[in-house]
Design a protein that fits this description.
The structure holds two protein chains of two kinds.
Chain A lengths: L3 H15 L4 H36 L1 H16 L6 H6 L4 H15 L4 H11 L4 H11 L8 H23 L1
Helix pairs in contact in A: 2-5, 5-6, 6-8
Chain B lengths: L1 H18 L2 H38 L2 H16 L8 H14 L3 H16 L9 H11 L7 H9 L9 H24 L8
Helix pairs in contact in B: 2-7, 3-4, 4-5, 5-6, 6-8
């Protein structure tokens, strides 16, 4: 597993060299776009991480988890991860802020930290994608798109916990 | 988004009133802001490195190779789209860019695909192919969840990528569920399922 990243990088770079691509210049150009990404997400992330840490300090996050924990227990889902899971389809930045908080609170290599990472890694900002793609072509009636997408998010949350349970 | 933001802040102020945590609340504002910057700085190294590698992959047309690889599979998902059309090409490219985590490349390709799919559509109702395509884009199919791994690493994970098999299984199951539901509803005519 430890060799996945290095060998993938080596493969891409060697293949590009073989294809006579100006590897380093292209790499630098791409890396610059990484800085741009950081620059673009910084204001959003700062705003939302402040909001989330306020929610955490005020005890609101615990309240939500406590309130919904009976439902979670029934389906075997850790209630600590509920705020993040619920925010995930609505706001990418918001759920990233909550993921950050969860990894900090429980530790990235803990059961809850891993579950949170898997949920974040296997879902997308559903509402954003739907609005953007249909909005771009002026489609108003999206029929069953939202139902299918939200069921997928729900499935992902359940399977995240199942797979982490199974594999760790 | 504005509503969520304001709601989060107001809710925490109201909440702290009840739980008597006013000191923690004001401390959390400053902590939160500096934590955010710390996280951004710790993430930026890996993010730049990865963006660079992926740019190289795009330049040497590895992305296009991957798109070709997926076209037989995608043909089954989009029976209404002609396989030599511009729409189909964009769909393939969008999927492979998503697989590689090239969000910046995937979005414009996806928007072009939607415009192509909308060409023969005279109404404001989504066609079956459009729904299938958007549903695929609301599920995550990224092979390497680099942003999350970077974040895990920044917060002290011993092996930030060890969640990857869980992520693969979970995303595959979620994607399959979404497509299955989509297919079932479509096969029932689905016209009454307006949202």
């Amino acid at each position: 597993m430890d060799y996945v990243m290095p060998s993938l990088i080596a493969f891409v770079l060697c293949y590009a060299l073989f294809k006579k691509v100006n590897v380093f210049d292209v790499f630098v150009k791409g890396a610059k776009s990484g800085i741009k990404t950081i620059y673009n997400i910084a204001p959003t992330l700062i705003g939302l991480i402040v909001a989330v840490s306020m929610l955490k300090a005020s005890g609101a996050l615990t309240m939500i988890s406590d309130f919904l924990s009976p439902v979670c227990e029934k389906i075997g889902f850790p209630s600590e991860l509920l705020p993040m899971t619920l925010l995930r389809p609505v706001s990418g930045g918001g759920s990233t802020a909550l993921l950050n908080q969860a990894l900090k609170d429980f530790g990235p290599d803990s059961f809850l930290g891993r579950c949170a990472s898997v949920i974040a890694g296997s879902t997308e900002t559903t509402f954003y994608a739907i609005t953007m793609y249909f909005g771009a072509v002026n489609i108003k009636k999206i029929r069953h798109t939202l139902i299918a997408a939200l069921v997928a998010d729900f499935t992902a949350a359940i399977f995240a916990v199942l797979t982490v349970n199974l594999l760790f | 988004m504005s509503y969520i933001f304001v709601f989060m802040i107001l809710a925490s102020i109201v909440c702290s009133f009840f739980t008597d945590t006013s000191q923690e609340l004001s401390a959390s504002i400053m902590d939160g802001a500096s934590n955010a910057v710390e996280l951004l700085i710790m993430m930026s190294g890996m993010l730049c490195l990865w963006s660079g590698i992926m740019e190289v992959a795009k330049e040497c047309e590895l992305t296009q190779k991957l798109a070709k690889l997926f076209s037989p599979l995608l043909r089954r998902l989009f029976p209404d789209v002609k396989k030599d059309s511009r729409a189909f090409e964009c769909i393939c490219m969008n999927v492979s860019a998503n697989l590689l985590g090239l969000a910046n490349a995937a979005t414009p390709l996806g928007l072009t695909a939607m415009q192509e799919l909308n060409k023969d559509n005279k109404s404001d109702v989504a066609t079956n192919s459009m729904i299938t395509f958007v549903v695929m884009n609301t599920a995550s199919i990224q092979l390497l969840p680099t942003t999350i791994a970077t974040m895990r690493k920044a917060l002290g994970s011993q092996s930030p990528f060890d969640i990857i098999i869980c992520v693969w299984i979970t995303s595959a199951v979620a994607l399959f569920t979404a497509l299955a539901i989509n297919r079932i509803i479509q096969s029932f005519g689905g016209k009454k399922w307006t949202t």
